[in-house]
Amino acid sequence: MPVELHIYNTEVLALILGLCIGSFLNVVIHRLPKIMEREWLAQCADLRGDPVPQGEGLTLAAPRSSCPNCGHQIRALENIPVLSYLFLRGKCSSCRAAISIRYPLVEISTGLLSAFVAGHFGASLQTIGALLLLWSLIALAAIDFDTQLLPDSITLPLLWLGLAFNLAGTFTSLPSAVIGAMVGYLSLWSVFWLFKLVTGKEGMGYGDFKLLAALGAWLGWQMLPAIILLSSIVGAAVGIALIIFARHGRNIPIPFGPYLAAAGIIALLWGKQLTYGYLGLIY
User: Fold this and answer.
1) Which residues does residue 73 pair with via DSSP β-bridges, in sequence order?
2) CA–CA separation, 181 vs 59, rounded Å?
3) How far apart are CA 210 and CA 216, in angstroms?
């Protein structure tokens, strides 16, 4: 009973923390692409010798969040994960404009997945690492879905963090993690150039290479076949469904990052079972 109670408490704490982190991830998902765009414009202006555009400084911490419709600043009581959305009935307290359902969905998903990860790994270093990986993947998936960008400011630290956790063999051995980062990057890099040589088009972005390299650094090279297979199957299924049912144009690119992220989460939780099952089917 004491052990079960301890696990239960860990899951509850992870749920609450996950809901709060989910609220912060909404800020990251919304603001980080805008911050990147402003930096690119400033760099382009500097290279041309033009005056660097001056505007209100935008960071992940400032200015305070506000309603995009009327500019009403979100008060603390209006920023409680999920509960504020329900209390406000999904509308701004000032102008009554609708608030996107994605905000509470990100918070709920982050909270529930965090609790599941905590229950899966228990109170351990693995849980800390798995939560950091999970939260990063959620942010990357949503940003890529919106903008088809996978920011280096997330993917590169995520790669190094995976190697750091595996110095002690937290998820896999250090040699496996290093090889996983190398093979993860080079495998999609090779596919990219092969596709470009054959078709003359770019089939994916460099951010996908870095994301798979990061997953290899966290989970080891042994998990890469399962991650690539899972992400390809889901991506192909969703792409075909969009073309057939949503009249999504064949020439309109579909972000691959969300499928890599989803496959990475599955591999994090059940990767060994999937790998053994896959090898069992072969042999």
Assistant:
1) 66
2) 30
3) 10
Counting other chains too, the contacts that 1-9 makes at CB distance below 8 Å and 24 or more residues apart are 6/123, 7/119, 7/122, 7/123
Query: 191 and 240 in contact (C-beta within 8 Å)?
Result: no
- Three-state SS at 49: coil
User: Cα–Cα distance between 107 and 88 in angstroms, integer?
Assistant: 16
Give the model's pLDDT for residue 25: 97
pLDDT, residue 132, reads 98
Percent of the chain exceeding pLDDT 70 equals 90
Q: Look at residues 260, 180, 182, 246 and name the one whose alpha carbon lies nearest to residue 218.
A: 180
Quote the tokens at residue 64.
Answer: 């305070």
Per the CB < 8 A criterion, the answer to whether 134 and 114 are in contact is: yes
Extract the residue ranges of the chain whose pLDDT is less than 50: 1, 3, 5
Rounded to 5°, the CA angle 225-230-236 comes to 125
- Secondary structure letter of residue 256 according to DSSP: S
Q: Which of 41, 31, 35 is nearest to 65 (CA)?
A: 31
Q: How far is CA 159 from the centre of its chain?
A: 13
pLDDT tens digits for range 183-203: 999 999 998 899 889 888 887
Predicted pLDDT of residue 97:
92
Q: Which of 189, 254, 255 is nearest to 216 (CA)?
A: 189
The token pair that represents 31 in the structure block: 């603001």
**DSSP string computed for 184-229:** HHHHHHHHHHHHHHHHSS--S-HHHHHHHHHHHHHH-GGGHHHHHH
